[in-house]
């Protein structure tokens, strides 16, 4: 009893001092962690600026960046595994803009670099910088993603992703619906993505939760306010930040705080939004069961994925380069996901564009009533009018269809023949079919010139660009495949082309392989 009293007395005298020491040590540790993270983020920002500058210089000198293996090489060599990964990512991001959880595993190569679909994260980001839409809304987002790419990799190399998630919140930009649709965002739901990256069994995994930014179609956006509350929940002050600035604020969240992965963060978001479910004002479901539903949903797309892979390999002889391969994936994936949407009513018809949505609804109506011929007619119209996309980049595919009137894939001989006929047509200004500086195929009326690319909107004329060069006092001559307009001051500028024919066909450039390491719509 005396010992117990003595012990209690010692605790009473010394414990406050001990508590003070422990609190001081804890504060020092927290400060050291903060300094360490700040140092890593600074290093990432420096690396990002160097990459942006390097890509800008390459655009100026018309040099090419090697980013093999590409989707093009995979198709030509019949590498099904590589093509399948691209196709799986495409079909999910193309069809589900909100209410879905997607997980992607990324391997580490022999040099310790993160790889996805055969490309390192740096190679993927190089392509994003080169081909990202020149719209001012996209420029700061791409820069933020570039910094994040290096920062997350530095966190991994430092061992901090073994017990933590690197979390990024990507809001839909604040813009009118027409602009959002043009950029590849889904304007109806104003969808956002919460992405959580960590290390699992030696691999890097990125899990994405796609959440609506409006509670009902047409209702006022609530997402920015909820994002501020979300940041505050994890000790960040995001007040006054725009979408690009919020993207750049990577959260480091312990795995113990989200044992079920990113779906735990989706529930946190819904709680902060006042009880929504994946951002929508609908009855809540069990989050664990819903995660399993997402996995089953992806498995249901596997037949479509295999059809996409087989179709791409079958037309391999018609592909002239990496950009052709990406355009082919876009068109073929759109066809098979549209076919899937006929019977899969969880797919919102509007993801295929306003006109195609009406056609698909009509096809569903006739399908339910057994009107086979009318179904085929409506689906043909839907494919012709479809304007879907798998990611927000502003990129658009070409206009030439790869499918016959009956919906069957054209043979390589048909495709090559049609390409030849298109290229043979010309007038006093040159070929009627040409590509812009970014590789998008354009077709102009005979006897007329067009001032801008029909897909990305960049200038395909040379007059204004000459005046810009003269104003800057530069003597650099830029070839037709220069990427002008991709990098902002001092890099986001448009440059002249050497050809005197306004719509001369530029050389082909390599295109980005789809990666979901970037941000969803």
Question: What would your notes on this structure say?
Answer:
A 7-stranded antiparallel β-sheet has the order 3-2-1-6-5-4-7, with helices on both faces. By secondary structure, it is of the alpha+beta class. Helix content is 48%, strand content 10%. The chain starts with a helix and ends in a 49-residue tail after the last helix. The model is unreliable at 1-18, 60-68, 394-399 and 462-521 (pLDDT under 50). The longest helix is centred in the first third of the chain and has 60 residues, at 2-61. It has helices at residues 2-61, 71-77, 80-95, 121-131, 139-157, 177-183, 223-233, 243-247, 262-272, 287-300, 302-314, 322-343, 354-368, 372-385, 412-424, 463-472; strands at residues 100-108, 114-116, 119-120, 164-170, 192-200, 203-211, 251-254, 426-427, 430-431, 433-435, 441-443. It is globular and about 70 Å long.
Q: What attributes does this structure have?
A:
521 residues; 7-stranded antiparallel beta sheet; 16 helices; globular; disordered N terminus
Please state the CA-atom Rg, rounded to the nearest Å.
Answer: 26 Å
The number of helical segments is: 16
- Kindly report how far apart the N and C termini lie: 69 Å
Total strand segments: 11
What order do the SSEs take from the amino end to the carboxyl end, as H and E? Answer: HHHEEEHHEHEEHHEHHHHHHHEEEEH
Strands of the widest sheet, in order across it, are 3-2-1-6-5-4-7
How much helix, percentage-wise, in residues?
40-55%
Taking the sheet with the most strands, its summary is:
7 strands, antiparallel
Question: Based on helices, strands and strand pairing, what is the structural class?
Answer: alpha+beta
User: How much of the polypeptide forms β-strand, as a percent range?
Assistant: 5-15%
Low-confidence stretches: 1-18, 60-68, 394-399, 462-521
Shape: globular
Write down the overall mean pLDDT.
76
């Amino acid at each position: 009893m005396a010992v117990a009293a003595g012990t209690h007395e010692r605790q009473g005298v010394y414990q406050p001092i001990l508590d003070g020491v422990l609190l001081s040590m804890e504060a020092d540790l927290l400060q050291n962690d903060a300094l360490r993270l700040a140092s890593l983020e600074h290093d990432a920002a420096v690396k990002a600026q160097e990459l942006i500058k390097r890509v800008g210089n390459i655009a100026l000198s018309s040099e090419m960046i090697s980013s093999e293996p590409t989707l093009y090489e995979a198709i030509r060599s019949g590498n099904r595994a590589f093509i399948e990964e691209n196709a799986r990512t495409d079909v999910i991001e193309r069809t589900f803009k909100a209410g879905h959880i997607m997980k992607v595993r990324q391997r580490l190569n022999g040099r310790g670099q993160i790889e996805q679909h055969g490309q390192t994260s740096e190679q993927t980001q190089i392509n994003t910088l080169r081909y990202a839409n020149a719209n001012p809304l996209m420029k700061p987002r791409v820069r933020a993603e570039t910094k994040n790419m290096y920062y997350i990799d530095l966190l991994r190399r430092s061992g901090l992703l073994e017990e933590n998630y690197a979390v990024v919140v990507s809001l839909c930009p604040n813009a009118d619906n027409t602009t959002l649709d043009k950029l590849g965002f889904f304007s109806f739901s104003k969808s956002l993505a919460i992405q959580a990256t960590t290390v699992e069994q030696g691999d890097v995994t990125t899990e994405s939760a796609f959440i609506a930014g409006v509670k009902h179609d047409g209702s006022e956006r609530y997402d920015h306010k909820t994002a501020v509350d979300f940041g505050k929940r994890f000790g960040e002050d995001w007040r006054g930040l725009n979408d690009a600035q919020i993207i750049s604020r990577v959260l480091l969240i312990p795995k113990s705080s989200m044992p079920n992965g990113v779906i735990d963060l989706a529930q946190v978001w819904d709680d902060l939004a006042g009880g929504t479910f994946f951002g929508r004002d609908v009855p809540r479901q069990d989050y664990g069961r819903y995660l399993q539903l997402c996995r089953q949903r992806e498995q249901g797309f596997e037949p479509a994925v295999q059809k996409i892979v087989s179709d791409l390999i079958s037309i391999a002889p018609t592909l002239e380069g990496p950009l052709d391969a990406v355009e082919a994936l876009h068109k073929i994936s759109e066809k098979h996901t549209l076919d899937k949407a006929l019977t899969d009513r969880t797919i919102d018809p509007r993801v295929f564009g306003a006109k195609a949505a009406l056609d698909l609804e009509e096809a569903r109506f006739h399908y339910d009533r057994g009107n086979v011929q009318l179904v085929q007619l409506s689906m043909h119209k839907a494919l012709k009018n479809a304007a879907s996309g798998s990611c927000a980049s502003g990129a658009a595919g070409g206009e030439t269809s790869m499918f016959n009137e009956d919906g069957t894939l054209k043979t390589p001989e048909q495709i090559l023949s049609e390409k030849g006929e298109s290229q043979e047509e010309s007038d006093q200004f040159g070929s009627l079919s040409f590509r812009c500086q970014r590789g998008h195929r354009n077709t102009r009326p005979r006897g007329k010139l067009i001032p801008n690319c029909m897909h990305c909107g960049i200038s395909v004329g040379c007059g204004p660009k000459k005046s810009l060069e003269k104003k800057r006092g530069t003597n650099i001559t830029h070839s037709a495949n220069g990427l002008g307009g991709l990098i902002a001051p001092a890099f986001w500028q448009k440059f002249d082309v050497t050809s005197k024919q306004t719509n001369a066909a530029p050389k082909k450039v390599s295109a980005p392989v789809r990666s979901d390491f970037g941000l969803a719509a």
